[in-house]
Amino acid sequence: MTGRFADFFRLAGGLLYWNTRKSWFRLRRGRLPCPCQVPSDSGRAFETGCEASLTWNHQAGFRRVCPLLVETKKGLRCSVNAADVRPFWGRAFGYYGGTLLSLYLAAALAIFIFLRVVGYPISIVHLVWPGKWHRVGEVRGWFFMDRSNRAFAAGRPAEGMLYLSNAYEFDPGNYTVASTLAQKLQLTFPQRSDNIYRRLLHDHPDQSALTAQAWFRALLARGDFGTVQQLARVEIIDDPSHASVWMRALLFATRQTGSEKPLLELLASHAPGAAPWRSLLETELLLRSGRNAEARAALNRSWKDAPPYSLFFQVSELINLGDGIDATDRLQSYGSRLDDTARATLLLDAYVALDASQSRQQLVAALLDPPLNAPTIHLLAAHLIHHPSDAILDQLFAKFTHDQLLLADDTLQAYLALYCAAGVAGDWEKMHAIGTLIRQRGHGSTLTLGAFEAFFRGETTQTRIATLLPALPLPLEVYYALLERYPGPVLAIGLPKK
Fold first, then answer.
1. Which residues have C-beta within 8 Å of that of residue 231, sequence separation ≥ 6?
2. How many separate helices (H) and strands (E) can be counted in the chain?
3. Which one, of 120, 138, 232, lies nearest residue 176 by Cα?
4. SS3 category, 371
5. CA-CA distance, 387 to 174, in Å (whole number)?
C-alpha cells in the first residue's frame, strides 16, 4: 500500500519531469542521449529497458506516464527505437486536468452541501459553472433579505438591520435589497443612505424614476432642501411623466432655502422638458421679487396647455394674493384638467381665504359622506395642519371612529396623518386615542409617537420637526404641511458638485 502511495506521487511529478526531458531530447535530436532508456542496452525497439521505471515499486505503472513501455518475454521494454522516444503531453494534461476537475467538483459539492444545510436556496450549477458564480452572491443576498424581513416582522429591528446589511454586502447589485437598506438608514445614517440612492441612480437607470421618488421622500422628511431642489431640477428634465411632482418639490424646496438659482437655471434651459414650465417660473420669480401686480396679471392670463401643477399653482397663488373669487372661477373652468384631490384642496384653501366657513363645512361633509378611505384622510389632515379647525377635526374624527378604518400597511399613513393633525390642533384626547390604536396593532413605537407628542406640546428643545419626520411614514402632502408649519433652521447640504 505504501509503495502504491509512493508511486502516486512519482506519477504526479513524473508526468511533468519526463515529458519535459523528452521534449528537450526531441529538440536537441542527435546531440543528447535518450533520457529514459537503459544506456547499456542496444537502443532498439523491444530490446531496450526503461531506466525511468526502475525506481517505481510497480514498474508497469510507469506506462501511465509513457505508453511506449510494453510487456515482452524479457520483461518491460520500450516499443520504439531510442531516436523515436517522444513526450506525451496530452496524457499529462489529461491526468492533471482530470485531477483538478475532480478536486474542483468535490469542493463544489462540499460547499453546496454546507450552504444547503445552512439554508441557502442554491443550486449546484451556481457553484460548478463559472458563468453562474455571480448567482451565489445573489442567493446569499436573498437569504439574508428573507431573514431581515422575518426579524423586522417579529419586532427585532437591530437584528433586521444586521441581516439587511449582510444582504447588501453579499449582493450590492440587488435593487430591492439596496433600496430597502437606503430607506432604513435614512434616520440613523442619512449620508450612507444618500450614497446608496446615488449608486442606485447610476447602476439602475431603468429604475431611476422609482429611486428618485423614494430618495426625494427621504430628503424631504429630513428637511434636506438643498439636495431636494437639485434633484428636482434634474428630474423635471429627465422624468417628464412625473414633472408636476418634481416642480412642486422644486418650488417648495427653493422657498425653504430662499434660493432662486435652480429656478433661473431651469428657466434658461433649452431642454424640451423645461419649456412647459416657463409661465410658472416667470410668475414665481415675480412673486419673490415683490412685483405682485405683474404676477397677478400673469396669473390672470390663460396658461394654455400648461401641465396640471401649473394650473394648481395658478389657482393657489391667486388665492394667496387675495383673489379667492377669481381663483374659484378659474378652478371651475379647468374641469377635469385637475383631479378631484387637487380641486378639493384648492377649494378648501379658497374658502379659508374668503372666510366662507359654511361652504368649507359643506365641502368637508361632502367628502366625508361616502365610506371613509385613506386618501380622504390624507387630504383633510394636510388641510387641518395648514388651517386648524376644531369643528372639522371633530367631524373627521367622528367619521373615523364610526367607520373604523382597518389599520394595515396601506392605511397606516392615514392613521399617522390624523394623529399629526390632532397634535397640531392640540387635541390630546384624540391624539392619544389614535396613538393607542396604532400601538395596539403593533405599527408604532411608544418612543416615536411620544417624541411627536412632546414636539406638538412644546415640551422639547427640538425646533426642527424634520429631525422626527423620517421616523413616521406619512403621506407626501402631510410632510409638506408639517414642514411649512414648523420650518425651523434650514439645512442646505445639496448634491456633490460634478
1. 212, 215, 216, 219, 249, 495
2. 23, 2
3. 138
4. coil
5. 44
Chain centroid to Cα 301, Å, comes to 43
pLDDT in tens, 86-134: 998 888 888 888 888 888 778 877 877 776 666 666 667 666 667 665 5
Cα–Cα nearest to 415, from 395, 391, 433: 433
CA 395, CA 232: separation in Å to the nearest integer?
37
**What does the pLDDT read at residue 310?**
96
Distances (CA, A) of 491 to 192, 225, 227, 256, 318: 17, 6, 9, 9, 29
The span from the CA of 494 to the CA of 498, in Å, is: 12
Q: Do 372 and 403 meet the contact criterion of CB atoms below 8 Å apart?
A: yes
CA dihedral of residues 128, 132, 133, 137 (deg, nearest 10): -130
Are 309 and 244 in contact by the 8 Å Cβ rule? The answer is: yes
Quick one: cell of 5?
502511495
Of 116, 147, 118, residue with least CA distance to 126? 116
Query: 322-330, long-range: CB within 8 Å, 24+ apart, which pairs?
Result: 322/353, 323/296, 323/299, 324/350, 324/351, 324/353, 324/354, 325/354, 326/300
Total residue count of the chain as it appears in this document: 498
Residue 271 DSSP symbol: S
Residue 497 confidence (pLDDT) = 41
Q: How far is CA 266 from CA 42, 226, 251, 269, 281, in A?
A: 96, 16, 12, 5, 8
Residue-level pLDDT at 60: 85
Give backbone dihedrals phi and psi of 212, rounded to 5 degrees, phi first.
-60, -40
Name the stretches of the chain with pLDDT < 50.
491-498
